[in-house]
Amino acid sequence: MKVMALTGGIGSGKSTICSWIAQQGIATLDSDQIARQLVMPKQPGLAEIVETFGADILQSNGQLDRAQLRDRIFTDPQAKRQLEAILHPKIRAETQRQLTQFAAEKKPLVVIEIPLLAETGVPDYIDQVIVLDLPPAVQIERVMNRDHCSHQQVSQILAQQASRAERLAIADHVIDASQSLTRIKAQLQPLLIIS
Fold this sequence. Notes:
Blueprint: E1 2-8, H1 14-23, E2 27-30, H2 31-38, H3 44-53, H4 66-75, H5 77-104, E3 109-113, H6 117-120, E4 128-133, H7 136-147, H8 151-160, H9 164-169, E5 173-176, H10 181-188
């Protein structure tokens, strides 16, 4: 079974592309989705977050207050490291568990969407890395249009992410994500063929 990671900065189209790959009948995983499941009520991930950050990180219904946590880690590098120390090993363990299941089902290829791959390092279960690459100016424009936010807000998010050079340094395959969706799919198609 071949395992490919799909990564790229904000606004590169990761979710759209991963969804299209799944529509091709290829097994996919989404590390953000796994992370969300790990912090649901009664999950050990949430218990550890509450232990670390305090009960005020919860909403009144017991769910994680994502907005508050996001603000906290955005302004406090130490809090960001603490959160990553809690979640990243759990995300990798759960990903490994699901990959074992896919291997048992004899899936020839699995594509995992991992937004923070350059930031967290490439796990040993990844065979190849696909980077959706585009110029920062295009990223900023896309995210401003998508999320209705300011140039400054998007620039701050970009400053928190790995640089374009850092992402390209881990790439086995670079896809020009500044092109149309049709052209992006055409670039990806040969990579998804398992002989």
